[in-house]
Design a protein that fits this description.
This protein is 21% helix and 23% strand. The protein is built from nine helices and 15 strands.
Length: 265
């Protein structure tokens, strides 16, 4: 954290989260709805001699929508999760007893952004297009930046722009890493792997092995995953490394959370 703080030279901040609403594409069957209410104020009623009025809102939905953080309790291998924890020992309908979102400390560290679209000579990678370990290594060299232990490694594919031009296509597939890339990033002992896509991994999958990169990162190595990161402003400014700041909502027992990370340069 102290080393990452030295990267601040201008004080400019970047919002890395995206706004979410009822129409935001999400992994099925996820959805959400926000309902705004004025309790007890039917027919123009107010409170007190000063005629106080107020709004409240009610959230009804899933926490794995938009820019989201996956805890280590989110995904496992055959009912076994990180640190060889069996689902029957910590999973309850009312919330997980271990490894939930509320157990993750604030993440304040160095963020490293690799422009994988630029590295491949494109504005935007295509659905199903794989980002390999060798390409990540080559991109670091070409862009003059190195992913190190404790970093948040973020991949820019250009795919997020599809959310605003063709949301159905955006949610039907995505470019991303394969198992080899997940293993490589995990070997660097990063805190989290992130991307400007809704699932970090390339979809559609090339075989019947699904979300194996998640298994490598979460279940086997204890690396958090952050999805749907808005990298566009950072890319436009040519930012490669920065102070990454995240204090996620502390929903007790939740396995995911809608978040808004901040980059500071």
């Amino acid at each position: 954290m102290l080393e990452a703080a030295k990267l601040i030279t201008t004080g400019k901040t970047y919002r890395l989260g995206i706004p979410v609403d009822r129409s935001t594409p999400a992994f099925p069957p996820r959805n959400l709805a926000i309902t705004v209410l004025m309790p007890g104020q039917e027919q123009g009623k107010t409170f007190g001699a000063n005629k106080m009025s107020y709004l409240d809102d009610m959230f009804n939905g899933w926490l794995g929508i938009g820019t989201q953080l996956d805890s280590l309790a989110h995904l496992g291998v055959d009912g076994t999760f990180y640190n060889k924890r069996s689902a029957k020992d910590f999973v309850e309908v009312t919330g997980v007893k271990k490894m939930g979102i509320d157990k993750i400390p604030p993440i304040v560290t160095r963020g490293v952004l690799l422009d994988m679209a630029k590295h491949k000579g494109k504005q935007q990678l295509l659905e199903g297009e794989i980002v390999t370990a060798e390409e990540i290594k080559a991109a670091q060299l070409a862009q003059g930046v190195e992913i190190r232990e404790g970093d948040v490694a973020i991949l820019h594919t250009g795919w997020l722009s599809m959310l605003y031009t063709d949301p159905k296509r955006y949610g039907a597939g995505e470019p991303g890493i394969d198992v080899g890339a997940a293993e490589y990033l995990a070997s660097l002992n990063v805190v989290a792997v992130a991307a400007d896509t809704w699932g970090v991994e390339a979809v559609p999958f090339k075989s019947d092995r699904v979300w194996e990169g998640h298994q490598v990162l979460l279940a086997k190595n204890g690396v958090y995953i952050i999805e749907t990161v808005d990298t566009r402003a950072l890319i436009a400014d040519g930012v490669k490394e920065f102070l990454f700041v995240l204090g996620q909502p502390l929903y007790t027992g939740a396995v995911q959370a809608i978040i808004n990370p901040i980059a500071i340069r």
